[in-house]
């Protein structure tokens, strides 16, 4: 990716501030998307993305170029998101208002209505990896290769998750099930 | 791609439409990092400096304590040699070996000199 090369050159030249200024717009959407695919909540994903950028700010001079910049950034994001998810799961019980609010927010999020709302609920009901793969794939129309890199798993595994997710969604939606199963 | 798949893709894109960061996201990131008040990696550099300072203090303490110990040993050895000089000379002249008193005194002087030298060097370094 050309943007990555420019960012890496700036880091290697010791110009981490400029590198960071380029990195934010280049990775904002991807970091947010990855966080959203794991946390399933727009607000939480945005907060986490902010946190990840602060981590990147602190760690940028340490980037040694051994892994691809994107791979390194996705790994930091995944770890942060999984930690946040763990903390959230441990710190709230299902009866708490925050959880109810979150669930209602997911179900009644603005935008999709009618059939789309049903589809959204079906997506939410998918197994975690399938839901994550399909979210990343459709959120920004990313390639399977990029989804694999973001999730940190092999391309073929992503293809399997996507295929199964489509099959599950198709089956759950009745008519569509015949089209994709 | 079949029509069904195309429709499915369209619907899937639809349910994620509008899922995005707020408009001032980049600005808030910059405000966050500006609030840290350091250059990128500044925290790491500060951490490194703190560790380096701690290590230096530890080495200085150890050098001081080593110097004091060596000086003490040297001084004690000198006192022993000084107080027992006649006995040592007598023992040496008994024919066992003529070099022993010289060696003992030499070792004591060396220890004392080494300790003092370390002590003075350490003090000038602080």
Describe what you observe in this structure.
The complex is a heterodimer of chains A (181) and B (126). By secondary structure, chain A is mostly helical. In chain A, 78% of the residues lie in helices and 0% in strands. Chain A is built from ten helices and no strands. Chain A is elongated, with a radius of gyration of 18 Å. Chain B contains five helices and no strands. Chain B has helices at 3-16, 25-36, 42-83, 85-93, 100-125. In chain B, helix 3 (42-83) runs antiparallel to helix 5 (100-125). Chain B is rod-shaped, with a radius of gyration of 37 Å. The chains are: A mainly alpha (181), B mainly alpha (126). The interface between A and B is large, with 41 and 32 residues.
Topology:
The complex is a heterodimer of chains A (181) and B (126).
Chain A: H1 2-12, H2 16-39, H3 42-59, H4 69-91, H5 97-107, H6 115-124, H7 128-139, H8 144-151, H9 155-172, H10 175-180
Chain B: H1 3-16, H2 25-36, H3 42-83, H4 85-93, H5 100-125
Q: What is the structural class of chain B?
A: mainly alpha
Q: Care to count the β-strands of chain B?
A: 0
Residue stretches of chain B low in confidence (pLDDT < 50, at least 5 long) are: none
SS strand fraction of chain A: under 5%
H/E element string of chain B? HHHHH
Portion of residues in helices of chain A?
Answer: over 70%
CA gyration radius of chain A, whole angstroms = 18 Å
Mean pLDDT of chain B, to the nearest integer, reads 78
Globally, the shape of chain B reads: rod-shaped
Query: Helix amount of chain B, in percent?
Result: over 70%
Mean pLDDT of chain A: 83
Ends distance of chain B: 78 Å
Largest interface: A-B, 41 and 32 residues
Fraction in beta strands of chain B: under 5%
Which series of helices and strands of chain A comes N to C?
A: HHHHHHHHHH
**Helix count from the secondary structure assignment of chain A:** 10
